[in-house]
Fold:
Amino acid sequence: MPLRPYLQLDVFADRPGNGNPLAVVLEADGLSDAAMQAIATWTRLPETTFVLAPTAPAASYRVRMFSPRREVPFAGHPSVGTAHVLLERGRVAPVDGLLHQQCEVGVLPLSVEGAGRARTIAVRTPKARVLEIATPDDPRLARPLGALPPGALPPALVDGGRRWWLVEVVDEATLRAVTPDWEAIATLAEATGSMGVCAFARSSPGQDHDLVVRAFVGAPARFEDAASGAANATLAAWLDHNGAVPGVGGSYRVSQGREVGFDARLHMRIDADGEVWSGGHACTVVEGCIAWPD
Structure:
């Protein structure tokens, strides 16, 4: 069976152990859907990506993304991590600072700034849609986070490639102390066709981030995401919709994952056209080959 290059890395971190883990399989042409899903299940990482020859004329490469349970059409940390691997190995080169990734939602641009360990990559995320705006005392949202004191914005159900309930909490300390009700989060996710609850709070003074985010996935699995580019992009669109973007000039930094043993930083940006870019650093941790029968 052919040996294919295989890498594991941390995304949204500049050192191993702080970011969201990702597996990347290069030269994946010839692998069946079933084999890709089996590999993603075997790695037991949040996502595994498979790099293929592009079929869209404008694309730099094509990627398919799988969680351990299913294929996903788009996710932020797999997009940033896959681009990092291809740049690091010299398989692609940005043109005017951009790569173009072909995935299940179409061809998306990625901006590349800097080089080596200082390099940051950001993907322009799919347009988000506000599906529902709730009240802070909505009974569906009271149980999942334990009826926390709300922040300034109302809760909202927003779809940006992946659908999330966005819930602002009064402050950073309160959010970091949350113990989620997983049964209630799963019920909410299943009833509304969403991933679950993305809770956020403004940071305490003197921090190296502007927001704290905790993303509680309720379906199909139940876990807290260490660093979610797609959830943060959906949140950025909601903040922009309300004129509530923190930071300076449409750019801000997010702290995520500390409560589950990580310490990721996501660099978020809303450009002059209102497009959301989700990115940060990435670092390679494991390099080798994978042998997998198709």
Q: What stands out?
A: The first strand starts at residue 3 and ends at 11. The mean pLDDT is 96.
